[in-house]
Amino acid sequence: MGYESTTYECRGCGRHEIGTWASLPYEWSRIERIDGPNSICPACVHDRLEDVLKDLREDGYEHAHVVQSSTRK
């Protein structure tokens, strides 16, 4: 039984990448306690994470935080 693929959208830059319903794309992270796209690409984690979280908190998501990173290929 295989895993069905799905498209993930980065909350920081809008980049799209394919993963499976059970696993984020390689090195992507997930943001919890928000509505809408809840994944973030490695470039945004490295370069823009604090800005992304600040924007989310200003939009009312005070408890938004990154909870995991996918390191499997």
How are the SSEs placed, and which strands pair?
Layout: E1 5-9, E2 16-20, E3 29-32, E4 39-40, H1 42-47, H2 49-58, E5 65-69
Antiparallel strand pairs: 1-2, 3-4, 3-5
**Structural class designation:** alpha+beta
Rg, Cα atoms, Å: 12 Å
Overall pLDDT score? 86
The rounded distance between the terminal residues' Cα atoms is 18 Å
Strand content: 25-35%
Overall form: globular
Order of helices and strands: EEEEHHE
Approximate helicity band? 10-25%
Total beta strand runs: 5
Major β-sheet, in short? 3 strands, antiparallel
Strand order of the main beta sheet, please? Answer: 4-3-5
Q: With helices defined by DSSP (H or I, 4 residues minimum), what is the helix count?
A: 2
Instruction: Point out poorly predicted stretches.
Output: none
Describe the structure.
With 73 residues, the chain is α+β, with helices and mostly antiparallel strands. 22% of the residues lie in helices and 29% in strands. It has helices at 42-47, 49-58, and strands spanning 5-9, 16-20, 29-32, 39-40, 65-69.
